[in-house]
Design the sequence.
């Protein structure tokens, strides 16, 4: 007997030789599932890291670089000069770099140190341009590494000759190419910088430099180093005075010369974070590191390395916080699709093991009858499954690592290992449950007769309570709020909320399995009184088998629920972007002119392909009310504009309400106003002074919070026929139409007008890889779940395919026609497929309805809440409900018809023998 219980390689070889097709199918299933499971965390890491890198890159080095600054130490002159020279500053920068806490990593190549004037100094040299008559100002900077970070375009790099002190009268400097071009600086130019006392410091320009990495932190942390600025002086005049501000780049050895100027020199050390070291999974650690450097232990170490009064400045914490808010609104939505797809995949793996156990029921029963112990049986099955599943899982893992570069490999390995473990354990566990008691004939498990056990009832009630808690948590706190309420993102509360649709699907599957026998019992009696036997037999077959168990139905319901939820999310994202783009543009396209548009322009634009409607608008942004408050006034043709507002859904109104009264009647001009304007002026007439100085008497007749022509909350829309001739000229065109060609519109509008399209504005809203990556991952996850649902349906039907084939063969010997055989199989499978389709559609609708109060799509749809049009909550998408349910029905009917056709082509003798053997 010990030989029977032993797990031998011979047993495994025999099993693989006798069933190579089943082994190959299992290997393919495990490899595909392991590949998808391993690729998912890497894809998440990839787009999250790309989103963080994009956020940091858009913020720019001026916000993300750490700038440590300290005044010149109050020590004797000799020591002060030494403190400003490269040896001292370089040693301090090295210590500062060592003080940067992990996971934040500094980029030594872009980090720098130096001395700069805190006060910009006006220079008297009149050859430097003076746009408003004001003298230009200069900032003296003595940075390190000019030779390594720039190329000499003209002249040479500046040098410090001998010992430079505060009393040095002349130094050399370089300027960037942009500074030389804007300020007319050339090699050999002399600039006089005011000194603290005595004659000015003479700065002789010896070279013009071109930055090697102009966008790097070395040059961009202080953009003035490479690009001069035209600074406006605050003034009440329409054109405030301006002056040029540039930077003179001294050699680092000449830094002591800054002490002799009136510019108050400061030492600085700039630490640029390495872009590749910023990982989204380290977000909390990065926030802690930044906080430590700004006001924590890191600041203490920086001051110990530099100066006791050194200050650290950066806005990297704000950038990380903004990215964290965006991520917290997107990640839970992606987790919903991930949990749904993972559940369906796990169910399919378990069904594959169950199918193998059912196919080998007689074999395993015989082994148990001959004395094989449960551990011995489980060991044999585990060994033969592991020989196939483990290499397949490793192959899937390798494919995922190659297909999705980047990301942490540990999570991928863990995901592939879990898939492999489930695949290996499915068959042994199913066999242990089915053969824990030695018996020759198993009990019948008719759906209509089996009564659920008390344990099953308790388990179902427990799941119901958990699902209700998850749904309530999501409705109360939202997808991001539930995680924050529980703790950090990714905590148990976040996972419970993300599991809410899956749990709803689980509960629906359990409820539908309990309700399934009732319609069958109700239909059995009327069907039995019919003359034909096909209907009665199909219902008897549907009620006798145990196929509509929890696992197949759970796979279908979870997939349909996830598809409905995911489709609603994707449709809601598209709808939110369309609505926001419509509010920003006001129509499908908009043509704006700086002044009045040429007379022939509207006709040229109207003839552009795709343009269906055109509304002329005269915009006046300089109008003022009697209280001298500025207000935007739009002059329109009432009929055309009312039609546009009705088509776009932006504040529709009857056009007659804006029609200009008869000339000479003295009646105020009716207007459409925003709520804020209507609240301020009510319905009484008031005067508005237009931009050309004319006045018009207005009375508010219509109040709308939105209107196509004007963006904002402070506007009036009136009949342009009641305005002066100059103001009434069209300055904007609002266009409607399908497939508008932006290029053709720009060519028709010419160079003096700007063209904005709704499609282009919508595309600009996807400004982060975090958003686009989440959409792609969401789409793939929903598609994978749907694919596994189809596979689950195939496995469920394949489980009883030999039995149905034998049944058809027997019935054909008794006179059943092929058409009746097709109807029999279709009618037998319809109750189960109708249950799954209707239940899936209903569950998906209920899930979206229950969870919509806690789901806000603004984070994934729009770049910021500022452009949100409101109403971005989750809504049911009819196509996402109907199409998957219809696909389940069509697939089930198609499989039944195909099996009936295939069985009809084969002889009955083989099927009868196969059926008898079973």
Sequence:
């Amino acid at each position: 007997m010990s030989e029977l219980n032993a797990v031998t390689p011979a047993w495994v070889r025999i099993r693989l030789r006798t069933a190579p097709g089943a082994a190959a199918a299992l290997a393919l299933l495990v490899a595909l599932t392991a590949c998808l499971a391993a690729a998912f965390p890497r894809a998440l890491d990839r787009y999250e890291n790309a989103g963080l890198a994009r956020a940091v890159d858009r913020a720019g080095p001026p916000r993300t670089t750490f700038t440590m600054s300290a005044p010149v130490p109050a020590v004797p002159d000799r020591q002060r000069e030494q403190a400003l020279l490269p040896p001292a500053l370089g040693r301090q920068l090295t210590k500062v770099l060592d003080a940067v806490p992990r996971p934040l990593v500094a980029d030594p190549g872009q980090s720098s140190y130096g001395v700069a004037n805190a006060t910009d100094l006006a220079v008297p040299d009149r050859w430097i341009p003076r746009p408003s008559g004001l003298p230009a100002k200069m900032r003296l900077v003595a940075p390190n590494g000019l030779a390594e970070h720039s190329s000499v375009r003209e002249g040479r790099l500046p040098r410090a000759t001998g010992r430079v002190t505060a009393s040095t009268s002349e130094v050399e400097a370089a300027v960037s190419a942009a500074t030389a071009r804007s300020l007319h600086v050339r090699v050999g130019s002399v600039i006089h910088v005011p000194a603290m006392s005595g004659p000015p410091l003479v700065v002789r320009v010896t070279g013009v430099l071109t930055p090697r990495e102009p966008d790097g932190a070395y040059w961009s942390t202080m953009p003035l180093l490479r690009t001069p600025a035209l600074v406006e002086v605050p003034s009440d005049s329409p054109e405030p005075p301006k002056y040029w501000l540039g930077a003179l780049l001294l050699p680092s050895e000449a830094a002591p010369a800054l002490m002799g100027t009136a510019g108050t020199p400061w030492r600085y050390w700039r630490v640029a974070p390495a872009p590749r070291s910023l990982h989204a999974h380290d977000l909390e650690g990065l926030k802690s590191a930044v906080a430590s450097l700004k006001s924590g232990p890191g600041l203490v170490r920086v001051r110990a390395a530099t100066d006791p009064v050194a200050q650290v400045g950066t806005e990297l914490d704000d950038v990380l916080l903004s990215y964290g808010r965006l991520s917290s609104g997107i990640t839970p939505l992606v987790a919903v699709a991930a949990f749904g797809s993972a559940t369906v995949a796990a169910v399919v793996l378990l069904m594959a093991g169950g199918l193998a156990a059912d196919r080998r029921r007689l074999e395993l029963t015989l082994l148990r009858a001959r004395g094989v112990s449960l551990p011995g049986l489980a060991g044999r099955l585990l060994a033969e499954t592991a020989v196939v599943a483990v290499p397949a899982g490793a192959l899937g893992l390798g494919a995922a690592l190659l297909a999705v570069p980047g990301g942490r490999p540990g999570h991928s390995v863990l995901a592939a290992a879990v898939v492999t473990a489930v695949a290996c354990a499915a068959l042994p566990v199913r066999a242990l449950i089915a053969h824990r008691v030695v018996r020759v004939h198993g009990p019948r498990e008719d759906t209509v007769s089996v009564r659920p056990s008390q344990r099953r009832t308790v388990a179902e009630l427990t799941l119901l309570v958990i699902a209700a808690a998850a749904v309530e948590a999501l409705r109360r706190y939202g997808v991001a709020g539930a995680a924050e309420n529980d703790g950090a993102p990714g905590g148990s509360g976040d996972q419970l909320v993300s599991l809410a649709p899956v749990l709803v699907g689980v509960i629906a599957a359990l409820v539908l399995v309990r309700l399934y026998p009732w319609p069958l019992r109700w239909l059995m009696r009327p069907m039995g009184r019919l003359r034909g036997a096909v209907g009665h037999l199909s219902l008897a077959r549907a009620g006798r088998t145990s196929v509509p168990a929890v696992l197949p139905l759970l796979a279908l319901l979870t997939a349909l629920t996830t598809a409905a939820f995911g489709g609603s999310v994707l449709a809601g994202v598209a709808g939110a972007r369309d609505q926001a783009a419509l509010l920003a543009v006001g129509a499908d396209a908009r043509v704006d002119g700086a002044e009045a548009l040429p007379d022939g322009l509207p006709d040229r634009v109207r003839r552009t392909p795709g343009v269906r409607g055109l509304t002329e608008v005269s915009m006046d942004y300089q109008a003022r009310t009697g209280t001298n408050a500025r207000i935007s006034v739009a002059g329109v043709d009432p009929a055309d504009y009312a039609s546009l507002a009705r088509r776009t859904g932006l504040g529709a109104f009857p056009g007659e309400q804006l029609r200009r009264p008869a000339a000479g009647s003295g009646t105020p001009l009716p207007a459409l106003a925003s709520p804020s304007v209507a609240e301020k002026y009510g319905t009484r007439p008031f005067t508005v002074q237009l931009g050309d100085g004319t006045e018009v008497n207005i009375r508010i007749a219509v109040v709308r919070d939105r209107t196509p022509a004007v963006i904002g909350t402070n506007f009036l829309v009136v009949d342009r026929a009641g305005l002066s001739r100059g103001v009434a000229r069209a300055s904007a065109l609002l266009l409607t139409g399908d497939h508008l060609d932006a290029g053709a519109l720009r060519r028709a509008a010419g160079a003096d007008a700007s063209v904005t399209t709704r499609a282009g504005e919508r595309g600009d809203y996807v400004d982060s890889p975090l958003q686009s990556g989440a959409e792609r991952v969401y789409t793939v996850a929903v598609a994978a779940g749907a694919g596994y649902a189809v596979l689950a349906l195939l496995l469920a039907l394949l489980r009883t395919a030999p039995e149905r084939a034998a049944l058809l063969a027997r019935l054909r010997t008794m006179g059943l026609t092929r058409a009746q055989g097709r109807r029999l199989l279709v009618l037998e499978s319809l109750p189960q497929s109708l249950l799954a389709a209707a239940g899936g559609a209903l569950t998906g609708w209920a899930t979206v309805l229950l969870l919509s109060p806690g789901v806000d799509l603004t984070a994934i749809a729009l770049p910021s809440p500022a452009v949100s049009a409101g109403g971005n909550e989750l809504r049911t998408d009819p196509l996402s409900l109907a199409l998957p349910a219809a696909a389940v029905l069509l697939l089930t009917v198609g499989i039944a018809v195909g099996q009936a056709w295939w069985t009809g082509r084969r002889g009955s003798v083989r099927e009868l023998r196969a059926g008898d053997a079973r």
In short: The chain has three domains: 2-19+324-399+442-571+768-917, 57-322, 595-751. Confidence is low (pLDDT under 50) at residues 1-6, 480-493, 913-918. The longest helix spans residues 316-359.
